[in-house]
Structure formats: C-alpha cells, structure tokens
C-alpha cells in the first residue's frame, strides 16, 4: 500500500476512524483525520514529505520548540461542492504568510511543492472527511516546529513541518461580547505580532481568562504603546461599521494580515460598500456608540469566517450594538461562503480545486 | 531497582553514559545526564513525579505547546564543593519565578514538593555529573509544556513538567560586542517579557541573526515604545558602570527579574559599590561613552554569571569600552562564584545543600 506521488511518500493507514466520528456534533479542532503529512528539515534541506497515519511522534525533551517556542502555523479550510469536488480558498496566501512567519522566527521557508502540493495530495486521500453542506469544512492546520535539541537559546538546525486535518461544523461561539484592552497587549512594534507564531497565542490566554471572568468572550487588542488604536482580536481581524462605512485597521508589524480581512475588503469594494483602512481610534468608537452611528462590529478569520459582536466594554462602560435588518456582517459572510462553497461565481479567482 | 522516595517514583537507568562524556570539552546545553524528572498535570492536579531514563517521549501533533506556545522554563545551576557536596544557588527564587511565569501563561503553578524536592532527589541520583572545579557546574533546566491536544486557541487542560540536567564548563562566549535595539523589540507593556516564556526567546532569533551578521553577538533591548531606555540582553540583565556607580534598569513587565541581577546588586551594596536602579537612557550611555565616564557594561545571568561587554554600537557609531585594572564585573563575578562554590562565607544565606 506504500507509494510515491510527486516525490511524496504515502504510507496508507490500514484502518479508518471515519465511521466512529459524529459529524453532526464536532467540537472545533478536536477530531483528526486518518492521515497527516510530515516533512523534516535537516542539514539545510527539506527531506522527502511523508503522508502516514495520524499518530503521536517522539521528540527529545530538549527540543527547541519546548524551550524557545520556535513554532509557526497556518489555518485554512477545504470545502466540498455539490459535485463532490474539494476546494481550497486562496491557499497561496497562506503559503506566503507561512513563509513570512518562518523568516521572522528564523526558520526555513518551505517550497510550494511541499506546502501546496503536499496539502493537495493529503486532501485527495482524505476527501471523504470533507462533508458537503453549508458550514461544513475540513479545517487544515499546517505547522512547523523546531525539533533540534539543546538548551541554548539559538535557532534550531532541524525542523518538522506537518499538516493535520480536523473536520469542522460551522463555528458558532454564542453571543460575543468584547472588552477593549487597556492594560495588556498582544504585540508591539518590532515584535512578532504579524507572524503566526505560537507564542503570540499563549500570551493572550491569561488576559482572555480575566476577560472571560468579567463576562467577555474576547478582547479587542489596542496598540501597546498608547492603547488608543483598535487593532484585532485573538484570532480575528476586526471591522467596525460606522454609518455605512466599514472601517478596519491597516496591517502592520503588530497585526496579522488576515486572508478573510483581505477578502472582506475586496467583496465590500466590489459591491459598493464604502471602506476605510486606517487607524481606528477607541475614542472614535465610543463617540459613535454614543451618538448612534456605530452599527456593527465583527471579527473576520478563517475559523469563524465572520463573527458578529453584540457589544463592547471600555472603561467599565458597556455599549450594546443595535440589531440590524441589513447587517454588513451577515451579507458579506454569505457572499464569502457562497464563493467558498462554489454556490456563486468566483469573480476573484480565489478558489482552487484540489 | 524501582523505588519511591517522598512520593517520587524512581526508575533507575540501568546504564550510564557518564564515561562517554568528555567533561573538558562540553558545548553548552547539548549533553544530558542519565535521568530526568517528569510530572504530568491532569484533571486539575499534579500526578506523581517520576524520575527515569533521559529519553525522547511521544506527544500528539495537536499538542497545544506546538500551536500556541504554552511553555515556560527556568535555568539554574548545581555546584560541587571540595567535600563533594552539591549546592544550589537561591533555588526558591527560581521556583517562585517559575510560578509567576505559569500564572502569566495560564498554566498551573507547581508545588515546592515537586519543583524543589524533585530537583534535589534528581540531583542526588546524578551527583557524579556535578564536577568539582571553578567554572564547572550542572546546568538545570526545569520546564513545563502544554501537552493537551486540540487546535483551538485556548489554554490546555494537561501539562508536563520536566527537569533535565546538562553538565557545563564555564561559559566563555568570546569578546561580546552589543548593538542597541532601534527597531526590533523583545517585550511590551502588558506583554509577557517578565515571564520566562518560550515565545520570548524565539522572537529574538531573527533580530539577533541580523545583529550577528553585522558583527555583534548580542542585542541590548530598549523599551519598544520609544527605544530610549536600556532594558536587558537576550538572556541576561545588563549593568552599566558610569564613573564608579553601577546602574541597571528596574524590573518591570518588560524585563525578567534575574536572580543574578538581584545578587549582583546585593553584593555591590554590601561591598560599598554605589548602585542606582532606575531607567538608564541610551543618550546617557552615549554621552558617558563620549566623555569617558562609561567604564563598563556587563550582562548578568545564570548561564554566563557575568559577561563583560567590550563595546556597543548605536546608530552606526561604535563605542569601545576601556580595559580596566579594577573591573567591577570581574570583582563581582569572583565574589559570586566564591559563594556558589562555597569558597567564601555565604553571608546572604543563598546556597542550599542538596
Ligand atoms: C491574530 C490573528 N488575526 C487574524 C486572523 C485571521 O486571519 P485569516 O483570515 O487569514 O484566518 C488570525 C487567524 O486565523 C489570527 O491568528
Ligand atoms: C530574558 C532574561 N533576562 C535575564 C536573565 C537572567 O536571569 P537569571 O540571573 O535568573 O539567570 C535571563 C535568564 O537566564 C533571561 O532569560
């Protein structure tokens, strides 16, 4: 059952757990498919990628990923259309961003032949795990970790790239109330906020726990130096609708350049929704909430696609957002989903067939 | 050969590699002893610690440490005196700091019975690895990683605490020239700079690589917002001697509260060296270098103890430091070493017998 396709070695898993999975009741990111892709980097080069059974692997206790956090990842989704074809959404953007993250974390870049072709080969094997139907997707997690050993704070010389896959239902996180960060910060100028580096996420766990205890599901991060500019949420970029204009912060060293954010802006522009990409001030948001021009806030990211926010808190004041008839969030979400599921024409050429 | 001491399960390694190790030619952090300590956290509690053979372990590809960087560590040393007794230096400080890091990274704190008693038990088994002689030590690396699985950005519910040991010679890194950070940053207010979190270290690899390419071994980090205040180096706090006063930055959310830094300040105070703990400005340093009052810069940290710096660069200007007869760095290093190796009276009660 072993074969080599395009220089990818395939060792088929003899058993499948697909029949044990309840696809109607999936919690996000906890179920994995039968196979994964592994590719190691040693002696300055990427070795042959291998697709094999999803399973634990062994690693030295002194591996640099454990001590110095050299680890990056991506988040993507595969969708199925009514012809049983599997589609990716702007995968080149994720590949590019992965390599940008790699550079910032002093890790090796990975070629398209491994990231993109490896992913397609893996998805071909796992296509039964991509379920048809709106909201259904196969979440894709490419990641790279430093596996070289040694407890000295220096870049590793050995790395492991992996792709694992997790079936997902549409992401509904309940009503999301957010709090605007006044003390804690997610990223700094000259830091790693624009990289999808592992350390950026655990750094937010404690502040988010405190926010949760106060009844808020997420934090909207502000610039660390002045806490006056609205930046992004934990795993989403954020949009603000004031009047009929959609505002979002420009990307920077502190903000992840989200694929969903980009796509939202493009759809809005195409469909004549006014957009402004510029620093959005906390005081501007509060003023708009007070004078009634603030109509929507929503997050944009691969996992949730578009996540409407029902209210925000700033300095002990809570501002409830209005319930709208014509929500930009829902309108754009539907348009984006229709492109992803091949239900609408893809005028942007964003979708890629596996 | 299995036994239980103080609730620590001991599974002796039947073979030892100690005779294969060339103790005269060790590179830092690459050789490990025969045993390690492992203790897992599950269902809200720490399980029984186990001391067993140092070896790789298996872990799920979706373990949160790989994706979200939930990982912290400590660095300590054990020293041998002429009676063959093994000593630790201020281990309670490391235990305290470890738990502070744990809180900031939303990880469980660890009790003294595991961190301190576990370490002592492990060191008793490995005492032949601690070599007598100035400069020799056994470097101790306690660390904790999130082993719970699932690719959703939330704190893990399972953790692994480990202690691994690596014999070390005195740390000599050659002549150290540093460059003062003007663009990149290590930490931000409201961030995790004061925690010994894995992500803080890999974030510095790329800027440090760029500095290396320009001929500088290390970066002196400045505050991220203005780059006007001198903060610390990659794994060391920094001291500046202007005239006969020793200056160092106060600890903050951005700076690690180093045990060596603390001890240097205490020794200086005891021996009537004037110290000032206050923000040290880049412009002040440059002015002092120009008017000849800047006499020394040195790093202070467990690995190198005291690391004298020979010169620094700021905005394309390089400032060479004078070669001194009576260096504070060397004087304090000797005093600190003498306490650690039990060659001088420990008036501070810093040393703890294993
Ligand atoms: C910090 C952060 N911001 C924004 C996003 C949204 O990016 P994308 O739309 O590419 O998923 C993510 C990732 O998913 C993220 O981790
Ligand atoms: C960032 C940083 N600063 C300073 C230090 C020095 O601390 P200590 O003297 O406790 O080793 C360390 C650690 O070793 C460190 O990682």
From TrEMBL, chains A, B:
<protein>
    <recommendedName>
        <fullName>Branched-chain-amino-acid aminotransferase</fullName>
        <ecNumber>2.6.1.42</ecNumber>
    </recommendedName>
</protein>
<dbReference type="GO" id="GO:0052656">
    <property type="term" value="F:L-isoleucine-2-oxoglutarate transaminase activity"/>
</dbReference>
<dbReference type="Pfam" id="PF01063">
    <property type="entry name" value="Aminotran_4"/>
</dbReference>
<feature type="modified residue" description="N6-(pyridoxal phosphate)lysine">
    <location>
        <position position="196"/>
    </location>
</feature>
<dbReference type="GO" id="GO:0052655">
    <property type="term" value="F:L-valine-2-oxoglutarate transaminase activity"/>
</dbReference>
<comment type="similarity">
    <text>Belongs to the class-IV pyridoxal-phosphate-dependent aminotransferase family.</text>
</comment>
<dbReference type="InterPro" id="IPR036038">
    <property type="entry name" value="Aminotransferase-like"/>
</dbReference>
<dbReference type="InterPro" id="IPR043131">
    <property type="entry name" value="BCAT-like_N"/>
</dbReference>
<dbReference type="InterPro" id="IPR018300">
    <property type="entry name" value="Aminotrans_IV_CS"/>
</dbReference>
<keyword id="KW-0032">Aminotransferase</keyword>
<keyword id="KW-0100">Branched-chain amino acid biosynthesis</keyword>
<dbReference type="GO" id="GO:0009082">
    <property type="term" value="P:branched-chain amino acid biosynthetic process"/>
</dbReference>
<keyword id="KW-0663">Pyridoxal phosphate</keyword>
<dbReference type="InterPro" id="IPR043132">
    <property type="entry name" value="BCAT-like_C"/>
</dbReference>
<dbReference type="InterPro" id="IPR005786">
    <property type="entry name" value="B_amino_transII"/>
</dbReference>
<dbReference type="GO" id="GO:0052654">
    <property type="term" value="F:L-leucine-2-oxoglutarate transaminase activity"/>
</dbReference>
<dbReference type="InterPro" id="IPR001544">
    <property type="entry name" value="Aminotrans_IV"/>
</dbReference>
<keyword id="KW-0808">Transferase</keyword>
<dbReference type="GO" id="GO:0008652">
    <property type="term" value="P:amino acid biosynthetic process"/>
</dbReference>
<keyword id="KW-0028">Amino-acid biosynthesis</keyword>
């Amino acid at each position: 059952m072993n074969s080599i396709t395009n220089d990818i070695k395939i060792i088929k898993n003899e058993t499948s757990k697909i029949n044990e999975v309840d696809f109607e009741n999936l919690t996000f990111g906890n179920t994995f498919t039968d196979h994964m892709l592994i590719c190691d980097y040693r002696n300055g080069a990427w070795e042959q990628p291998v697709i094999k059974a999803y399973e634990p692997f062994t690693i030295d206790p002194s591996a640099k990923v454990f001590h110095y956090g050299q680890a990056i990842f991506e988040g993507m989704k595969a969708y199925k259309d009514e012809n049983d074809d599997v589609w990716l959404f702007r995968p080149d953007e994720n590949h590019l961003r992965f390599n940008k993250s790699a550079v910032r974390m002093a890790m090796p870049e990975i070629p398209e032949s491994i990231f993109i072709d490896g992913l397609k080969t893996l998805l071909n094997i796992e296509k039964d795990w991509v379920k048809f139907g709106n909201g259904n997707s196969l979440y894709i997690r490419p990641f790279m970790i430093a596996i070289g050993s040694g407890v000295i704070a220096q870049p590793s010389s050995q790395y492991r790239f992996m792709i694992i896959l997790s079936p997902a239902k549409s992401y509904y996180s309940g009503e999301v109330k957010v709090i605007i960060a006044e003390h804690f910060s997610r990223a700094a100028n000259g830091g790693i906020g624009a990289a999808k580096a592992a350390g950026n996420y655990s750094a937010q766990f404690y502040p988010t726990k405190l926010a949760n205890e106060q009844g808020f599901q997420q934090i909207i991060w502000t610039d660390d130096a002045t806490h006056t500019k609205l930046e992004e949420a934990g795993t989403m970029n954020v949009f603000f609708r004031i009047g009929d204009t959609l505002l979002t912060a420009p990307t920077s060293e502190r903000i992840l350049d989200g694929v969903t954010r980009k796509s939202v802006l493009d759809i809005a522009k195409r469909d004549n929704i006014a957009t402004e990409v510029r620093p959005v001030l906390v005081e501007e948001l509060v003023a708009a909430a007070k004078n009634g021009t603030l109509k929507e806030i929503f997050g944009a990211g691969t996992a949730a696609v578009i996540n409407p926010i029902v209210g925000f808190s700033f300095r002990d004041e809570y501002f409830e957002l209005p319930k709208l008839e014509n929500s930009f969030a829902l309108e754009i979400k539907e348009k984006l989903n229709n492109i992803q599921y091949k239900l609408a024409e893809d005028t942007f050429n964003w979708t890629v067939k596996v």
